[in-house]
């Protein structure tokens, strides 16, 4: 009995120590050595909310509103609410098409910059309640939230801070208006998993200037929907810096933040202040940048892009829906570059996703399923850390493969089951302990020597690389540089038959 109590005691201590060592946000100062900084960067971890969000991989964006009926991208807030009149709106069709494509969470533009609300807000007349749709009794937010619940997808809301309709915009009263709208959205529709604040503002030099009370808004969200991540102009999820769908080759989820570099100014432990800096830099969290802020923070990238040229539906773009092949490339360059993809699919004037968009989604999913159907390492055998790899492949997080980084131990060699041809590498780090890998090389055995198949810098949650097909019986993965002992969560080799390179 005594020994069991000791064991429980010991485990409690270990767990506590473990927790104490994992942090989401750490202040740094000039007196810290390079080694210290690197260790901090390597042990910063996502919050449970960030981890859940990262694991979604694919999320969907729905831009729908008064612009759908006027053909604009940015309404001025003056269009008649009577224009909003979808003839066959069916949110279940949106959600099902997304789910069938592997999308696991949907964010709806509850209010875009024009200020028109897709729910019957008590605090403005500029909403669906003054439209002919369902005789003013309709509520798009409810229909989408309910459909997400029914199909088992996460649900998020986009609420534009910039509002071109509300008379109070530009005064302190607007912050109150915004809080009231948040309260409606966060209390009337069940669980909300993501709140998306757009940073766009086109007021110009003579336009209205609004000081947003971000801290109050964030605290309100944390209180009403603590499980939600707050994205983009928010403290949990960072805009990747482009709307092209192509993220960075080197993408760090730990980045310097604070007044010094203006990226997410302020301290997350004290206040959640909005990001204000340039997020478009080529790399944001490399070794040489770790001193650029007042703190280091887990602040992962979201890669948003529309399936069409515009964010809202325009009939003239029906033939410009991105091809499944291009969407596949976007997948590799977003999810496969340590990001979460936020793919916009805008419903048309009927309130339906068109056949063009649905067909593209379907065929995209088919392509990805075909590529990732067989992990050729599943049957690997024989040497090195194969036993551990098998546990990785079984998806058991707890048995992640760690490298010692001592001597040659940073190498894992795998024998394939006979000769195999492949052209896709998939790697994942166990980010629940941090992001650590800085450079890796995949080699294959040919003509009695090791040759490079592909190489990369960061891995993070997921790294996907395509390369000219190679045929071999043996491969090895070398972690050439890491901030701390790397911990991998997945290794996969696949063959994309359609890639003739
Ligand atoms: C931008 C907005 O201005 C676009 O209209 C769109 O909503 C996009 C997702 O974000 O900042």
TrEMBL record:
Q: Which domain of life is it from?
A: Bacteria
Keywords per UniProt: Glycosidase, Hydrolase, Signal
Tell me which EC number(s) this protein carries. Answer: 3.2.1.51
Q: Which GO terms describe its cellular component?
A: lysosome
Database matches in SUPFAM superfamilies: (Trans)glycosidases, Galactose-binding domain-like
Q: Which GO terms describe its molecular function?
A: alpha-L-fucosidase activity
The answer on whether this UniProt entry bears the keyword Signal reads yes
Glycoside hydrolase family 29 N-terminal domain: from which residue to which, for each copy?
81-362
Question: Does this entry carry the keyword Signal?
Answer: yes
One GO BP annotation here?
glycoside catabolic process
Class of enzymatic activity (EC top level): hydrolase
Classification via Pfam families: Alpha_L_fucos
Q: Which family does it belong to?
A: Belongs to the glycosyl hydrolase 29 family.
The entry's protein name is alpha-L-fucosidase
């Amino acid at each position: 009995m005594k020994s069991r109590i000791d064991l429980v005691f010991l485990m409690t201590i270990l767990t506590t120590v473990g927790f104490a060592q994992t942090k989401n946000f750490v202040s740094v100062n000039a007196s810290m050595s390079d080694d210290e900084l690197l260790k901090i960067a390597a042990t910063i971890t996502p919050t449970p909310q960030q981890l859940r969000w990262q694991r979604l991989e694919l999320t969907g964006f729905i831009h729908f509103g008064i612009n759908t009926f006027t053909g604009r991208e940015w309404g001025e807030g003056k269009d008649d609410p009577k224009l909003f009149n979808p003839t066959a709106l069916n949110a279940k069709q949106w959600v099902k098409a997304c789910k069938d494509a592997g999308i696991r969470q949907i964010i709806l533009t509850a209010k875009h910059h024009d200020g028109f609300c897709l729910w019957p807000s008590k605090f403005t007349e500029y909403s669906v309640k003054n439209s002919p749709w369902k005789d003013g009794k309709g509520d798009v937010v409810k229909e989408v939230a309910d459909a997400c619940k029914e199909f088992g997808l996460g649900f998020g809301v986009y609420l534009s801070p910039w509002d071109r309709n509300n008379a109070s915009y530009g005064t302190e009263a607007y912050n109150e208006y915004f809080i009231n709208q948040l309260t409606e959205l966060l209390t009337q529709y069940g669980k909300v998993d993501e709140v998306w604040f757009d940073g766009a503002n086109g007021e110009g030099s003579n336009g209205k200037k609004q000081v947003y009370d971000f801290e109050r808004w964030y605290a309100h969200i944390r209180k009403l929907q603590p499980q939600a991540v707050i994205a983009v102009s928010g403290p949990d999820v960072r805009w990747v810096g482009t709307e092209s769908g192509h993220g960075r080759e080197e993408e760090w989820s730990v980045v310097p933040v604070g007044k010094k570099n203006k990226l997410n100014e302020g301290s997350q432990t004290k206040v959640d202040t909005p990001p204000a800096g340039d997020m478009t830099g080529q790399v944001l969290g490399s070794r040489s940048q770790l001193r650029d802020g007042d703190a280091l923070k887990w602040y992962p990238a979201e890669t948003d892009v529309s399936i069409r040229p515009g964010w809202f539906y325009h009939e003239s773009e029906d033939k410009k829906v991105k091809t499944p092949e291009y969407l596949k490339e976007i997948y590799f360059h977003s999810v496969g570059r340590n990001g979460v993809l936020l793919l916009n699919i805008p419903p048309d004037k009927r309130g339906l996703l068109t056949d063009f968009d649905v067909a593209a989604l379907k065929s995209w999913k088919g392509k990805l399923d075909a590529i990732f159907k067989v992990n050729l390492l599943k049957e690997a055998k024989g040497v090195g850390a194969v036993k551990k790899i098998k546990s990785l492949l079984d998806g058991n997080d707890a048995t992640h493969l760690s490298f010692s980084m001592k001597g040659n131990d940073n190498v894992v060699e795998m024998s394939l089951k006979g000769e195999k041809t492949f052209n896709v590498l998939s790697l994942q780090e166990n980010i629940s302990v941090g992001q650590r890998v800085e450079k890796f090389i995949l080699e294959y055995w040919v003509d009695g020597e090791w040759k490079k198949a592909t190489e990369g810098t960061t891995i993070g949650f997921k790294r996907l690389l395509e390369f000219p097909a190679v045929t071999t019986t043996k491969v090895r993965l070398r972690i050439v540089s890491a901030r701390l002992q790397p911990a991998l969560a997945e290794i996969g080799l696949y063959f994309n038959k359609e890639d003739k390179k």
